[in-house]
Amino acid sequence: MDQKVSGGKDPLVLFMPSGRRGRFKKGTHVLEAARQLGVYVESVCGGRGICGRCQIEVQEGNFAKHGITSANSHISAFGAKEKRYADKRDLKDGRRLSCSATIEGDLVVDVPQDVQVNAQIVRKAADTRLIARNPAIQMCYVEVEGPDMHKPLGDLDRLKQALERDWGFSDIIVDQHVLPQVQSILRAGKWTVTAAIHKDMETARPSLIALYPGLKNEAYGIACDIGSTTIAMHLSSLLSGLTIASAGTSNPQIRFGEDLMSRVSYVMMNPDGCEAMTKAVHIALNGLIEEVCAESGVDPTDILDAVFVGNPIMHHLFLGIDPTELGGAPFALAVSGAVHSWASDLSLALNDGTRVYMLPCIAGHVGADAAAATLSEGPHRQDEMMLLVDVGTNAEIVLGNKKRVVAASSPTGPAFEGAEISCGQRAAPGAIERVRIDPETLEPRVRIIGVDAWSDEPAFAAMAEKSGVTGVCGSGIIEVIAEMYLAGIITEDGVVNGALAERSPRIIQDGRTFSYVLWEGDTRLTITQNDVRAIQLAKAALYAGIKLLMDKQGIDHVDRIGFAGAFGSFIDPKYAMVLGLIPDCRLDKVKAVGNAAGTGARMALLNRDYRREIEQTVTEIEKIETALEPKFQEHFVDAMALPNKIDPFPMLAEEVKLPEKAEPAIVTEGAGGGRRRRESRRRRD
Amino acid sequence: MDQKVSGGKDPLVLFMPSGRRGRFKKGTHVLEAARQLGVYVESVCGGRGICGRCQIEVQEGNFAKHGITSANSHISAFGAKEKRYADKRDLKDGRRLSCSATIEGDLVVDVPQDVQVNAQIVRKAADTRLIARNPAIQMCYVEVEGPDMHKPLGDLDRLKQALERDWGFSDIIVDQHVLPQVQSILRAGKWTVTAAIHKDMETARPSLIALYPGLKNEAYGIACDIGSTTIAMHLSSLLSGLTIASAGTSNPQIRFGEDLMSRVSYVMMNPDGCEAMTKAVHIALNGLIEEVCAESGVDPTDILDAVFVGNPIMHHLFLGIDPTELGGAPFALAVSGAVHSWASDLSLALNDGTRVYMLPCIAGHVGADAAAATLSEGPHRQDEMMLLVDVGTNAEIVLGNKKRVVAASSPTGPAFEGAEISCGQRAAPGAIERVRIDPETLEPRVRIIGVDAWSDEPAFAAMAEKSGVTGVCGSGIIEVIAEMYLAGIITEDGVVNGALAERSPRIIQDGRTFSYVLWEGDTRLTITQNDVRAIQLAKAALYAGIKLLMDKQGIDHVDRIGFAGAFGSFIDPKYAMVLGLIPDCRLDKVKAVGNAAGTGARMALLNRDYRREIEQTVTEIEKIETALEPKFQEHFVDAMALPNKIDPFPMLAEEVKLPEKAEPAIVTEGAGGGRRRRESRRRRD
User: How far apart are CA A637 and CA B488, in angstroms?
Assistant: First the structure.
């Protein structure tokens, strides 16, 4: 390290929250000390005291446990640069500019993660997690020498010299679109400019991607999750890390096919299908860009970096890659590694120099969205064995801890999304989302989206008048079937028990099988035997995939479960477990993790170290292809039962009274047993 | 080096023409030996014996002076790979495939520089210099593993693995446009493909810029000199180095302004002037691309690299940069260093991945064309002091040797190009290009472009009937004025001697001055006093620039002179020296170097080492700005005389009888003398 980091009696400085520490000579600028310790402190102006980005706070108090006896007043007095800055701009009480303040004794320095210097609308997004920053874009203010006929170096060449001198960037590549602007920008800024430098990989040469006259004290990025149903975009400041606008829209590719496989089919049937779908998603993205920019007042050309995630088919279609190969074995991805590209090559209306980064895909059905969720939830960073599930037409499943991570996808089909269910519908006002069935009377009470009361409460009728009760959404289906099971209306094999028709008029015959009348009003909503079967098939596929990964890990329960995506946000973990969608786990350790893929995308946007982390992690994840695993089919059949015939649920049983089983809850595993149970079920069906 | 390079008794192998040598174990492939010694031997297929690019010849005979006693038969017999190749394709007698042939004893190996494996029209261009190759584009054939569900790595990722395994390229960047093609190309080639890898700088990561199914055994590049008047393009094979087509066209920017400064004015007066001129040159370039491709049958998308040179204003306009700053002091270039760009960003109809390289500019008026001419003629590589001159509206002048190179530009104006001359015209049939004047009778005889006879020969009249005699072109103007001087018609101060009107009717009065009637026919062509003055001004500017550089080098004559450009190709060096355009030099050391800028561009196209060489050389060249040099004006005035009053011409005097001077040929230098002579001239005028 630098000679300024010295030992012995020099002051000790501790940076929080990183905890990095070192001894520095008195008079060392705090910014310099941070740099030497590798503590990320933003600075656009390079220590000239004009950008105000390098703010820190000195913590007062007793830090004896850190070897610091008195941290008070061990920083220099307010300097000229700070006074000038505080006069012009607002410098909050207690804040100092680390390019001005010097170390005068032992110090504990707090580096705020969200220094804001511009008035920005800060949207309270669902996930406002603070993310440690080290973005791939660096804004670098420099003063450039004017032209000199004695040394006829070009304007750009002198700018490069300044960037090397002040910021240490040598060997800079200059984007073609910047060239024609260099001279006028340098003159407009009176030979001071701010260069936007893109440097993602350590091995990459830095690129000059945009240039601004004078001090440009802001730069933005977008993080975007392209789902098959919904596209969500967040606009973040690359300099404060704050999310300042968010927007979402339906994926317009829906008009080419509701689910992924129908979109692949569309491409296979239509020569220009891929191009049309790529164009559709690009147009939707440009709409979202307009929306987040309008909301925040940000100029789209100030968005300099963009991160995208999506499942493999969304990923390919976004990049203009024909997804046909993903439609059948061997499910070959065109590219699985991270993709570095240009926004202009992808028809995005941003700056001509804006870069695009896509997280790696894990496997043919486990995409960059699963990688992003992994990055966000970090099973690979923890000791606990974590299960991360994102349910869609394909469920993406990641299971592991810091020792080993395995991943697979399961073909759950669209039942969880309400498709294939007779009374199923999308989540919208009027849809039943909560259900309770009295085990004695078999009478249900429900709650619908948009109404805060249960159906047996007096207020309900008036409140529900507007929307009516129209159907059952995905989370409602899970609850009603789980409650039917808990009330004994369906057996552990999923048969609607016709014998109960004697006890309740809600059990009705429907051809050769029976149905349960969940709602009787303008519409009659019934849960049919086929509905139960559809959910059984979907949950069996999901559980079989999870079970396969648990086999690989050699475990029979997990420590934590994260439910990603919209489906995961609304279902009650208890009912998911009652149905046997997920394995046994302490209920308080089962969490909806929201749009974890979007959070992972934001992490990759704000910190290139996270890009390297997930790239490395993805190469280490063991990919399990369910289609190649003989046990998958067996697990699938066994998982048809409620909760299932594979695993016991002792932790669940502590909180929920499960019906008594026809067979013992703990069964001996094995192909023979499986076959026997399957046969018995076939007989009973 | 590799363990295969061993000492002692192992066979000694000498590669020609490089002269590199080393000892290798018996059985080592010749290709491997070449690689270890850094001898460039092409191979597209990576040693599979299918591309035929790695051909060598074994030299027979006695190479005792190289320590090789018997080189005969010390190579392995024709192997299976070679037989297979020779059966399918033509392998010339004596040629071997170095990936098949092994070293079995001492060998002298000749590496042919122009291995052709495809039938190509090879155009005999003016300059067919063979250029040692090490292009920035490498064609790499690989066999890629098919997809495997157990290891769900993407197709592109497996391609990258193969490129690393077989060719050592790690950390490859993939162009966005390649992504959507990867899967279909891999399948079309049955998992064999040829990747075009661009790697120019050592510090750059290699880029995958194009991909072809199977073996793609050709790749092309264009080298282009964008002159203010003419644009010249050469199409070369990057794999054989041969130029296979050339084309030229007028620069369409001429319609915006005849000379450089009028084009800058156009930009200053018209808001879209820069864009219009950039577009015009791009359209012209695309026309030339069509032309060279049609001539050679090459697909434009197989052109993967492109090198451009031009003077600073052409350079800027090609890149879309407003050249206004170059129109006035301090003549600031937007960029002086080499420019790396993409053909698609410059609207060139080539492959989407085609790269563009522009040589560095030396100074505000000494452009990438001068850098290319320097690279071609190599003053910086030789002991002799070489003067390199490219005459245009601005003369670009480079003077130096391997110790030190200086450069400047001189504002010669358009007189040398026939503008500002009463009877001047562009070089075209009917234009006088050669002149002899009898010193006794003062009668001229001339030759015109398109006619092989002198005007005093009987055949002339009939042969000249078609075109007539229409004017005097640039080289003719130099000759007629030099001959007028040698015949005593004009004095060393450039005055047309009216006293001679007594002796010859060709001397006629024209107001207060006299003219010389050069041609009397349908048209009368006269050389007026003003014409002489215009040439005097132009040549004085040129010589003053040269003289300034000679001052810097501390020399009074040069060892070699290279005349670049069209003007230089046609003027007779003797007359250029008689008029004092160039300093004294042995006449046999004055050479027209043709389109040296174009040759330099070809060198940079075919060998990236030349790019590094000229980049380094340009940083080392001392740039002299004539406008800042007090002595320039003085030299200019002194150089008005014929030949001039600055320097003696003893070497010229040995070959040409120069008129006796009114003042001694060898004069004492100094500002006083200059002023005195200027005054005396003013009196005499």
Answer: 114
What pTM did the predictor assign? 0.89
Which one is the CATH code of A12-110: 3.40.50.880, 3.30.1360.30, 3.40.718.10, 3.10.20.30?
3.10.20.30
Q: Are A140 and A163 in contact (CB under 8 A)?
A: yes
CB contact under 8 A, A154 and B346: no
Q: What is d(CA B489, CA B478) in angstroms, rounded to the nearest whole number?
A: 14
Residue pair B361/B597 in contact (Cβ under 8 Å)? The answer is no
How far apart (Å, rounded) are the C-alpha atoms in residues A187 and A214?
Answer: 10
Same CATH fold, A378-414+534-684 and A12-110?
A: no
Q: What residues of B are in contact with residue A363 (Cβ under 8 Å)?
A: 152
Identify the CATH class of A137-213.
Answer: alpha beta
Tell if the CB–CB gap between A180 and B339 is shorter than 8 Å: no
Write the pLDDT tens digit of every residue in B166-215.
999 998 999 999 999 999 999 999 999 999 999 998 888 999 999 999 99
CATH class of A378-414+534-684: alpha beta
For residue B614, which of B627, B626, B599 has the smallest C-alpha distance?
A: B599
Q: What is the ipTM of this complex?
A: 0.88
Q: Is B400 helix (H, G, I), strand (E, B) or coil?
A: strand
A179 and B339: CB-CB below 8 Å? Answer: yes
Select the residue of A173, A334, A625 nearest B340 (Cβ to Cβ): A173
Residue B331: closest C-alpha in chain A: A149
User: B152 and A340 in contact by Cβ < 8 A?
Assistant: no
Q: Which long-range contacts (CB under 8 A, 24 or more apart) does A252-259 make?
A: A252/A280, A252/A281, A252/A283, A252/A284, A253/A228, A253/A277, A253/A280, A253/A281, A253/A317, A254/A228, A254/A229, A255/A280, A256/A280, A258/A414, A258/A419, A259/A228, A259/A393, A259/A414, A259/A419
3-state secondary structure of A267: helix
Distance in angstroms (rounded) separating the CA atoms of residues B644 and B649: 9
* Pairwise CB contact (< 8 Å): B340 & A171: no
Instruction: Confirm if B646 and B543 have CB atoms less than 8 A apart.
Output: yes
Residue-wise pLDDT tens digits, B428-444: 899 999 999 999 999 99
Please tell me the distance from the alpha carbon of residue B264 to that of residue B262, in angstroms, as a whole number.
Answer: 5
Nearest to B179 among A157, A173, A335 (CB): A335
The shortest CB-CB distance from A203 to any of B146, B171, B364 is to B171
Fold of B220-358: Nucleotidyltransferase; domain 5 (3.30.420)
Q: In chain A, what are the domain boundaries? A: 12-110, 137-213, 220-358, 378-414+534-684, 423-527
Which of A164, A183, A272 should be substituted to probe chain B, the one whose Cβ sees the most B Cβ atoms within 10 Å?
Answer: A183
| Closest residue, chain B, to A203 (C-alpha) | B205
